[in-house]
Write a structure and sequence with these properties.
The complex is a heterodimer of chains A (238) and B (221). Chain A is an all-alpha fold. Chain A contains ten helices and no strands. Chain A is 76% helix and 0% strand. Chain B has a single domain, classed as MetI-like (MetI-like fold, Orthogonal Bundle). Chain B is flat and about 70 Å long. Classes of the chains: A mainly alpha (238), B mainly alpha (221). Chains A and B meet through helix 2, helix 3, helix 8, helix 9 and helix 10 of A and helix 3, helix 7 and helix 8 of B.
Chain lengths: 238, 221
């Protein structure tokens, strides 16, 4: 270690621009993955309590498969194996579009959807059978009951769990560097390798993830407070 | 022996020698440290609980990848020793799990009602005895399932060591794939291996938990 710390390296060209792009890419991957994970997680979680045996089997398999395989193994599986099962034409198109980023989004979405589904399922059970039966007695079908009665209630009861899953997705997006996505972790390591300013590089990378995590936590607690179900969800200390 | 069986044997051996060993050592280091951190987090003294809380929040909000890089690249500047990928990964995984174990243990300790502590003190037990005879037996029983589940997550997380080129099972698969050019067979094998182990263990844990609750009767809650 000759010379001291030089923080200006983080903003000077060419690293400043690369780092900014990387942060945007991290946010982009996480947002896409979270949106997809929420949609899949909701459907799978509700499916686990569905009247149909087939739906219950398929959704249980989904949860067990994506929960019990390390996310990194899933990423390599999606990145290397999935394209091989597709025709060459499609494969070329995928790589032209940026298969690295797409496979990261797919992996994070599937992995998190399994965990979100478990929260959703717990939420469905909290909403309670009697509310569902009352809704169906008014003439709603099972699907309508889920759509208009159960989902609006359970989303608010499981909001804190969704926050932590969102943070997990942000952190997980750093694994995308393993398939060559130039996101935050990748670029900061590049910076470290090229300049040997490891402390600055690592600090910058870590700071990005910390700030994102804290921003999400703050934002979500705001949403939680605004959407709290009156009289139902008084938590201790509030 | 067919080439596939020999590859499978290699992967299983690497899984045991690197991933499993790394996980067990990390748990062995992290559990006692986490007990101390959990106690510190519950302390009323700001000087004691603030650093522990900061550690937990910091580590739980950063990706394991970044922690591995910190230890691997900045570690040698601190210790003055040449870096070792395996040791760095081992240390990073343990440090990472400390944060998660701390929260589980803290929640377990706090789940025992305050009234029981007060009742214990009122019968004349010392605070140490209350902890050992009343709170810990109940708290331990409640936190065990979460701790074991976290152990399984640590096992899955051990694959992240491949970012600093530790020759664990993920890295080994990639190396073998570079030679064999057969990603379908190799990555399917890897995924199935993890699935069988993690699914089997988590099902066993669930059954053990159910049995334990049954044996304890209705008084468990």
């Amino acid at each position: 270690m000759s010379g001291g710390l030089d923080w200006s390296i983080l903003v000077k060209p060419p690293f400043g621009g690369q780092l900014a792009d990387a942060i945007l890419l991290t946010i982009e991957i996480a947002l896409y993955a979270w949106t997809a994970a929420m949609l899949i997680g909701l459907m799978v979680g509700i499916g686990r309590e569905a009247p149909s045996t087939i739906a219950r089997f398929v959704t249980t398999a989904h949860v067990e498969i994506f929960r019990n395989i390390p996310v990194l193994v899933q990423l390599f599986f999606v990145y290397y194996v999935l394209p091989r099962l597709l025709p060459l034409q499609v494969r070329r198109e995928l790589f032209r579009l940026g298969w690295e980023e797409i496979s990261a989004v797919i992996t994070l979405a599937l992995y998190s959807s399994a965990k979100i589904a478990e929260h959703v399922r717990a939420g469905v059970n909290t909403v309670g059978r009697h509310i569902q039966r009352s809704a169906m007695a008014t003439g709603l079908t099972w699907l309508q009951t889920q759509r208009y009665v159960v989902v609006p209630l359970l989303l608010r009861t499981i909001a804190p769990n969704l926050t932590s899953e969102f943070v997990t997705i942000f952190k997980g997006s750093s694994l995308a560097m393993m398939v060559g996505v130039t996101e935050t972790a990748y670029v900061t390591q590049q910076l470290g390798t090229e300049t040997f300013h490891w402390v600055e590089a690592n600090a910058a990378g870590t700071a990005v993830y910390l700030l994102c995590a804290w921003a999400i936590a703050g934002l979500m607690s705001l949403v939680e407070r605004r959407t709290r179900i009156p009289g139902l969800l008084r938590r201790e200390g509030s | 022996m067919s080439p596939y069986l020999s590859t499978l044997g290699t992967l299983l051996r690497v899984l045991a020698v690197y991933n499993l060993r790394m996980t067990l050592v990390a748990i062995g280091i992290a559990l006692p440290v986490a007990c101390v951190f959990a106690a510190a987090r519950l302390s009323r003294n700001w000087l004691i609980h603030a650093p522990a809380t900061a550690y937990v929040n910091l580590l739980r909000s950063s990706p394991l990848v970044m922690i591995m890089f910190w230890v691997y690249t900045v570690g040698p500047m601190v210790t003055g020793q040449p870096n070792s990928a395996s040791l760095s990964a081992q240390f990073a995984l343990a440090a990472f799990e400390v944060a998660y174990f701390t929260e589980i243990i803290r929640a377990g300790l706090q789940s025992v009602a305050l009234g029981q502590r007060n009742a214990g003190l009122a019968t004349g037990l010392t605070p140490g005895q209350v902890m050992r005879l009343i709170i810990l037996p109940q708290a331990l029983r409640r936190m065990t399932p979460s701790l074991l589940t976290q152990g399984l997550i640590a096992f899955q997380d051990s694959t992240v060591a491949s970012v600093i080129s530790v020759p664990e099972v993920m890295q080994t698969t990639t190396v073998i794939n570079a030679r064999e050019q057969d990603p379908i067979t190799l990555y399917v094998t890897l995924a199935v291996m993890f699935f069988v182990i993690c699914y089997g263990l988590s099902k066993t844990l669930n059954r053990m938990e159910r049995n334990a609750r049954y044996r304890m009767g209705q008084g468990a809650h």
